[in-house]
Amino acid sequence: METKPEAPIAKSEMSSTEAAEFLHVTRRSVARFATEGKLASQKKGNKLFFKRSDVEDFALKRGIIQPLETEPQSRILTVAQLISTVKEEVDTLKEEINAKQQLLAEREKFLSDLQYAERR
């Protein structure tokens, strides 16, 4: 009995295994999503296949993946926010260092006074 070789999966398609890995669920869950009509599928023989775009849309709707930033402006705002946060952290650290330096100077003076008093 001769078996036909399976046709390779198109890049625009995903097997149920690939879809399950992409969605971080089991193959059984992917099959259930297909059965319930939540995720469009095609059956080829006894295997399910999914359009890559349908799987990605499903993942976006469920919050499994985040949409790509398409607006360069939003990236600039994010960088600006990061700069602001880092500046605040640097300012806070500088204040802490100044306070520690002042405390150190006070302790050194106190130590010096104690040593002077001990010698007398």
Task: Write a structural description.
The chain is mainly α and 120 residues long. The chain has 2 domains: 13-62, Molybdopterin biosynthesis moea protein, domain 2 (Alpha-Beta Complex); 69-120. Helices cover 63% and strands 9% of the residues. It contains 4 helices and 3 strands, in the order βααββαα. The chain has a 3-stranded antiparallel β-sheet. Helix 1 (16-23) crosses helix 2. It is rod-shaped. The protein starts with 12 loop residues before the first strand and ends with a helix. This is Helix-turn-helix domain-containing protein. Keywords: Coiled coil. InterPro entries: DNA-bd_dom_put_sf, HTH_17.
- Helix and strand composition category: mainly alpha
Strand order of the largest sheet: 1-3-2
For the secondary structure, the number of strands is 3
Name the shape in a single word.
rod-shaped
Supply Rg.
32 Å
The major sheet is characterized as: 3 strands, antiparallel
Task: Please work out how many helical segments DSSP would assign.
Answer: 4
Number of domains: 2
Helix content: 55-70%
Instruction: Tell me the span between the first and last alpha carbons.
Output: 110 Å
Give the SSE order as H and E letters. EHHEEHH
Mean pLDDT: 83
Poorly predicted spans: 1-8
Strand content: 5-15%
